[in-house]
Amino acid sequence: MKVRKSLRSLKARPGAQVVRRRGVTYVINRREPRFKARQG
What we know:
- One of its GO terms (cellular component) is ribosome.
- This is Large ribosomal subunit protein bL36.
- Belongs to the bacterial ribosomal protein bL36 family.
- Keywords: Ribonucleoprotein, Ribosomal protein.
- By secondary structure, the protein is mainly beta.
- The protein has one helix spanning 8-11, and strands at 2-3, 16-21, 24-29, 37-39.
- The protein is globular.
- The chain starts with a strand and ends with a strand.
- The mean pLDDT is 95.
């Protein structure tokens, strides 16, 4: 999982889900697991 300033490019990928947990934003992609990222 990468920590990134901007998740916009990862959100646009097919299969991406944006999840907010305890004020932290995650992008989870089950189709392409290498595009997991965290912000905040």
